[in-house]
Amino acid sequence: MNIQNYINGNFHKPIQNNWIDNYNPSNGEVYGQIPNSNKDDVEKAYNAAKSAFKQWSQTTLEKRSRILIKISELLETNLQRFAEAESKDNGKPVSLAKAVDIPRAASNFRFFGNAITQFASESHESVGQQAINYTLRQPIGVVGCISPWNLPLYLFTWKIAPALAAGNCVVAKPSEVTPMTAYLLGKICNEAGLPKGVLNIVHGLGITTGQAIIEHPDIKAISFTGGTTTGSHIAKVAAPMFKKLSLELGGKNPNIIFGDCDYQDMLNTTVRSSFANQGQICLCGSRIFIEAPIYEKFKTDFVAKVKQLKVGHPSQTETNIGALVSKPHLEKVKEHIQIAKNENGTVLCGGNEITVEGFENGYYLEPTVIEVPSDECRVNQEEIFGPVVTIMPFHTEEEVLEMANKVKYGLSATLWTNNLKRTMRMSHQLQAGIVWVNTWMMRDLRTPFGGVKASGVGREGGFEALRFFTEAKNVCIKY
Ligand code: NAD
Description:
The chain has 479 residues and is of the alpha/beta class. Helices cover 40% and strands 24% of the residues. It is built from 15 helices and 24 strands. Bound molecules: nicotinamide-adenine-dinucleotide (NAD). Nicotinamide-adenine-dinucleotide binds at residues 146-150, 155, 173, 175-176, 206-207, 210-211, 214, 225-227, 230, 233-234, 248-251, 282, 383, 385, 411, 451, 455-456.
């Protein structure tokens, strides 16, 4: 199935008629083509957005809210179709797309549809000077949203929904690896009555389409989620134009387990935080540190549980782990397993590609647990972004804190303990934007979301996102 750009409420072929193949990771087959849009396509999308801005930014909050909530409802109505499309494009189990990805995309629109009606700005009376200041929060204009392949519609809408709610018009680009649900979203937006040009979706490679978006002088803000190298490149391009930037980048998150935790809960959650979505979640706890007295027990129990995970075709209900997103990504993950072996890591389970009967050319890999001799080895420092975790013991709080913080990333951290004082001490000192204690990936959409160090700048979520997508203007009136 070929997909097209969504510009000004209509579907268009790319102007130069350049196309890229779209692969189904579960069987390795090309199942469609997507536009590789260039500068002209982005310009066309920008012009549509610019023309729509005046009216959209003046649309009442109630009406904006109603349209966003309608989009949310239509996503819910089309849950099965969207979940199947996401799974086919990405390789994730349909059950996961149905339980997590698509419901969350719907929640993003509902949440920001509601949030905008509660968003307010401040006023400051200048006491003794007979003046009052009030702050306006005005939409920026045309903004760019660029998202990755791991949680395709979930992360695409996490940007688009607040941008639209705040009154901006959007030029958006999903990952070229997983464009399908973004394409389907265009149709839903029309059905929900989103005015033409308010949202424009252009497809294509990062170096062509994405680059054209970030270089566009009149796209004044870029919200980006993806790799740290790409984020750094975007920052360089955007800086001379003084664009507003929100960058959500890579992670290498520690999962720290103390002996006093609720063991069974920890074990079940750690299997999930290691391998959910084939380990392709920026928040996965890929470095597991275990307190020495329970290390051997954990190692035995964890490996036994991981071995029970069923790798299979994404549409089969018993599948826990589907296909990795692409052949190059599979190769990159396998390369890291080899690096671990070269650095004297011990593969405790997994490590091999799997052939799934009937889908022999799919990109399947066993969930892999590696015991590492040191936290400084490459597999403990570099983001792998696949079904691979490392384990190693620690002896003291100070030691584990140092190891946890000794990476360039700082996205999230997970801590398992029932000791309140330790919880407070450690969660305050962990270098991360998000700390989960005795849970993982529990999300409340009002909370700030983002990373420190090489994991990004800026925060998404709740009013933080609405602040990012607006400019504050102070008006001072003397009376
Ligand atoms: P990527 O950086 O390769 O691509 C992300 C997006 O950027 C894609 O749409 C791509 O086409 C586009 N892009 C690439 N080059 C560009 C350029 N020069 N100009 C503009 N756009 C360009 O990342 P990916 O491989 O799709 O995703 C995996 C990465 O994303 C991992 O590092 C992961 O940790 C990160 N991630 C972070 C978060 C978070 O919230 N911090 C969430 C999910 C994924």
